[in-house]
Structures are given as C-alpha cells and as structure tokens.
Prior knowledge:
By secondary structure, the protein is mostly beta strands. Helices cover 10% and strands 30% of the residues. It has 2 helices and 14 strands. The protein has helices spanning 147-156, 168-177, and strands spanning 4-8, 11-14, 17-22, 28-29, 39-40, 42-51, 66-68, 73-76, 87-89, 96-98, 108-112, 128-131, 143-145, 162-165. The strands form 3 sheets. An 8-stranded mixed beta barrel has the order 1-2-3-13-12-11-6-14. Strands 9-8-10 form a 3-stranded antiparallel β-sheet, with no helix packed on it. A hairpin with a 2-residue loop joins β1 and β2. It starts with a strand and ends in a 15-residue tail after the last helix. Mean pLDDT is 91; it is low at 178-190.
Amino acid sequence: MANLVLTSPTTLTFGQKEYTCATGSGGIKENKVEGDKATPVGIFGLRYVFYRPDKFSKAPTTRLTCRMLDKHDGWCDDPRNPRYNNHIRLPYNASHEKLWRDDDIYNLIVVTTHNSLPVVANHGSAIFIHVAREGYEPTRGCIALAQDDLLEILEKAMPSTQIVIPTLKAYSKMTTEQTSPSMGKRADGKIS
C-alpha cells in the first residue's frame, strides 16, 4: 500500500510520483496548537472527501467516501465547543470555518484523521488536503495541491491510505531513504 508522504515542505510523494504542494505558513510542528498555522507532524488517515457539485458534474473517482458540499457546511474551530474539529451545519453559534468558499481552494477537500478519536481541545482543527491557491501560497496548516494532482491522487487512494508528515529533521534522511519503510507511528501519534 502506498501512502502520501511529505518529503519536503513543498513536495508530496505518492507511490513513485512527486507533487508540488503547499503547507502551513507556521511551519511543520510536532505540537500543533489551534491558530498557529502550522502543518502537524504525524501519520493520519484519509476519512472522506467533500466536493462542490457546482464545480464537478459528478463525484471524484475514488475509493474514499464522497460527500457533496452545500452552503450550510462548516467546520468548528472553537476549542471550547463540543463540536470542535468536526463537521457542522450552518448557521452555528461557535467559531467555525465555512466550507463553501468564494475562492476555489475548497472545491475538493480530503478530511484527515488529525486530532480525531478523540478530539483534544486546542490541538488544531480542519487539517485538510485541499486545492492550492495560485502560486502554492502557504496554507493555515493544511496541505494543498493543484486540483488535477489531487484528483489523480484520489483516483489511486485506498481507504487504508495515510498521509505521513515527518519532522523537519527527518526530511534530510528521507531524501536518501525516500519513503523510509522503517518510519513507524508511536503510540502518541508521532513518527519515530
């Protein structure tokens, strides 16, 4: 099984192919905190895909579960709220992010398992894989790819596919070992 592996802050590999990507403007951090704009270190599953039906005539070709977005979809980012780091329906009384946006970055969203099961308050929310802005501008913590690249990845992804985000110090090792089969997930979710 091939996993998505972040091999540098601007490169994601899947199988033998490399893709240009954007990561968080706050860097890549082991101890993610809500609002730090960092991409979290860890190994995360791909839960499901949201897509805009006004932008795609049909659901993306993928083995992952797909859900159509509408203007009432949101994601709670209020650490004090019981729905923190979960899909919500709008309007909603706590701080949240609207998933139906005027820009195109959420035309396609892959929801990851970051900070889920259990959700821990203030450990970060809405860490998605989504469409990149023009020029691959940094994100607020997500990983962003060109839409065509994301569609290509989704076509090959399996429900068991994970995204591996190593520490910065691991990048130099990965250039020689590539997707480092010895890299494993510790009980605390960090990469060893």
